[in-house]
């Protein structure tokens, strides 16, 4: 006998105005007899609120070169100077340096060679070519000196320290000459020659910019790949970096305008910026480039992370994107809401409840189909494992109501649980959180994504902010954790979406969606059990036109979808596999 189970959930959406009030939804369940298979079908509405401003952008300076949020002390400089971008140099007036295995030849001023160590002490341009075995380039210039170091086909190995050590200067520009291949390698142990604790293949105490159109390969066997104790700026070039610790590390900031990056770390992060001494610094800003972080602990970590453009692919053993202050780390604080104990109390609600939120089990390919209604009419409360957010209403979505009209998940006076939910053990559907987490908000931290393509595969949290998360554009796909102690989206403050296409999947134990200040619809859907890796999810409109589609590369139980194509009053169908 074939049984078809249909559950229809309709949500109130007030017209596109700014007002306050609750939204409601209804659930209807019916069965029909046939033969053989079981298919689950759900209609889910969406609801939420609209704000008149884009929170992340509202305090951007009129000059367009600095960005901050009113609650964050971090000042983000989004400008790249002409010299950051400029790759030209006067070869005739530059100092020429030839590396010849165990010796160094210098033609020009400002540099001296002693054995296999080249020392640059004056402002100017220096063209370096050749190979050096167990040698080093040291830049030790004046506080106001700007140095341009042109790598014109260089191979340097230094077993006991950094192959390029920038000890002092105002700013250093490393230019990768067009068409050249350059390589730098170190040893597994360093012998420190001063108190700077040098720990990277390229180590700089000054502001450092890398540009050009050549290729730079780095093998960091000791700790870091490229380190700057001030700004680290990259505007061009091809980089292949393998390191034990971080591939790119800038204490004050890491800024990327363009370039191609393949980053691999053993125990560190792909890109990191944190400053424990200055709370206004420690940010990552990306406005372009192709970044492939093939293996890392955290993909991109900073007190603030801003992504405006580019293609970023992250494969992380912990978090994909992590906004945390210098004194905290995602490995010690998880900001998601624990929801595995939340359930629908069927004895206290005024709706009939049939839990058909997912028929798939891990390792199977059973198909599931859910119909989504973004409705415009008021209906009854719902009892379901879907949490939905949409613009233009004045309150959080009402999931279901208990006696006396109390919102399901709203605690009576004196019984408010952490996370804003009221768990009980009498029902059977799990709810995901749409609000911030239960931990203290770090107001200095935030993630803002306004463009680009971001693909994350994370064993920890997919996108994790100890503060808030703002999405206004771009395409984001997250293959999140399979264990319930992490979440695909994890934030403490607010999560606001005003644009862009987001598909996030992962475990359901700590799932969160976008919050009430969003102006774009978002759907959080938690299934009863996980579906297998490779199970394609597709959201289509009532004419069968695809809105979004995604094939996760690992098992998942929770789905978050947001798209500008979602329209109020329209029907949508969510399918898994078939």
Could you describe the 3D structure shown?
This protein has two domains: 3-55 and 336-576, no CATH class; 75-302. Helix content is 1%, strand content 45%. The longest helix is centred in the first third of the chain and has 4 residues, at 82-85. It starts with a strand and ends with a strand. Mean pLDDT is 77; it is low at 1-64, 330-368, 374-385 and 393-435.
Q: Number of DSSP helices?
A: 1
How many domains make up the 3D coordinates?
2
The major sheet is characterized as: 21 strands, mixed
The low-pLDDT segments are: 1-64, 330-368, 374-385, 393-435
- Given the helix and strand composition, which structural class is it? mainly beta
- Radius of gyration equals 27 Å
Strand content: 35-45%
State the end-to-end distance. Answer: 21 Å
Share of helical residues? under 10%
Mean pLDDT: 77
Morphology: elongated
The count of β-strands is 42
Task: Give the quaternary arrangement of the chains.
Answer: single chain
Topology, please?
Elements: E1 3-11, E2 25-33, E3 38-44, E4 66-67, E5 76-77, H1 82-85, E6 95-101, E7 103-107, E8 111-114, E9 117-120, E10 124-133, E11 136-140, E12 146-158, E13 164-168, E14 171-176, E15 181-186, E16 200-204, E17 207-212, E18 215-220, E19 224-228, E20 231-234, E21 238-243, E22 248-250, E23 253-256, E24 260-265, E25 271-273, E26 283-296, E27 300-302, E28 304-316, E29 321-323, E30 368-373, E31 386-389, E32 446-449, E33 453-458, E34 463-465, E35 468-479, E36 489-491, E37 495-506, E38 522-531, E39 537-541, E40 546-550, E41 556-562, E42 571-576
């Amino acid at each position: 006998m074939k049984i078809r189970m249909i559950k229809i959930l309709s949500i109130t959406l007030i017209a596109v105005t700014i007002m306050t009030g609750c939204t409601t939804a209804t659930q209807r369940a019916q069965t029909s007899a046939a033969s053989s298979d079981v298919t689950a079908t759900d209609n889910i509405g969406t609801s939420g609120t609209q704000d008149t401003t884009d929170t992340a952008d509202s305090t951007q300076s009129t000059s367009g070169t600095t960005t901050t949020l009113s609650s964050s002390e971090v000042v983000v400089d989004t400008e790249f100077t002409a010299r950051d971008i400029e790759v030209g140099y006067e070869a005739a007036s530059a100092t020429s340096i030839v590396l010849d295995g165990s010796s160094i030849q210098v033609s020009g001023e400002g540099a001296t060679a002693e054995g296999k160590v080249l020392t640059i002490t004056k402002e100017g341009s220096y063209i370096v070519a050749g190979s050096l075995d167990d040698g080093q380039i040291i830049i030790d210039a004046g506080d106001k000196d700007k140095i341009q170091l042109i790598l014109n086909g260089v191979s340097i190995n230094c077993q006991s320290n950094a192959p390029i050590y920038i000890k002092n200067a105002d700013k250093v520009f490393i230019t990768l000459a067009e068409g050249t291949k350059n390589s730098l390698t170190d040893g597994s142990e360093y012998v420190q020659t001063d108190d700077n604790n040098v720990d990277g293949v390229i180590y700089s105490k000054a502001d450092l910019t890398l540009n050009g159109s050549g290729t730079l390969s780095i093998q960091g066997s000791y700790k870091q790949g490229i380190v700057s104790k001030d700004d680290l700026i990259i505007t061009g070039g091809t980089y292949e970096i393998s390191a034990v610790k971080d591939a790119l590390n800038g204490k004050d900031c890491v800024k990327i305008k363009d370039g191609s990056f393949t980053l691999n770390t053993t125990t560190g992060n792909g890109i990191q910026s944190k400053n424990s001494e200055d709370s206004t610094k420690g940010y990552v800003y990306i406005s372009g480039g192709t970044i492939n972080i093939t293996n890392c602990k955290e993909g991109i970590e900073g007190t603030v992370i801003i992504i405006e453009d580019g293609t970023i692919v992250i494969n992380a053993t912990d978090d994909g994107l992590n906004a945390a202050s210098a004194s905290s780390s995602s490995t010690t604080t998880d900001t998601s809401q624990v929801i595995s104990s939340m359930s629908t109390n069927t004895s206290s609600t005024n709706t009939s409840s049939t839990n058909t939120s997912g028929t798939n089990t891990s390792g199977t390919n059973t198909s599931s189909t859910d119909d989504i209604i973004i409705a415009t009419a008021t209906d009854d409360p719902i009892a379901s494992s879907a949490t939905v957010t949409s613009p233009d209403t004045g309150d959080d979505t009402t999931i279901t109501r208990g006696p006396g009209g109390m919102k399901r998940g709203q605690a009576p006076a004196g019984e408010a649980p952490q996370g804003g939910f009221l768990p009980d053990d009498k029902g059977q559907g799990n709810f995901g959180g749409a609000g911030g987490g239960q931990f203290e908000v770090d107001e200095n931290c935030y993630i803002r994504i306004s463009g680009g393509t971001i693909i994350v595969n994370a064993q920890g949290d997919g996108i994790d902010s100890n503060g808030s998360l703002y999405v206004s554009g771009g395409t984001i796909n997250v293959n999140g954790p399979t264990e319930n102690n992490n979440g695909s989206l994890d934030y403490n403050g607010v999560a606001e979406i005003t644009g862009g296409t987001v598909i996030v999947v992962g475990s359901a134990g700590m799932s969160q969606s976008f919050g009430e200040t969003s102006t774009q619809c978002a759907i959080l859907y938690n299934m009863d059990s996980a579906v297998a890796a490779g199970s394609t999810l597709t959201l289509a409109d009532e004419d069968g036109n695809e809105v979004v589609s995604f094939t996760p590369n690992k098992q998942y139980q929770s789905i978050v979808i947001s798209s500008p194509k979602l329209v109020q009053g329209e029907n949508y169908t969510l399918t898994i596999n078939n």
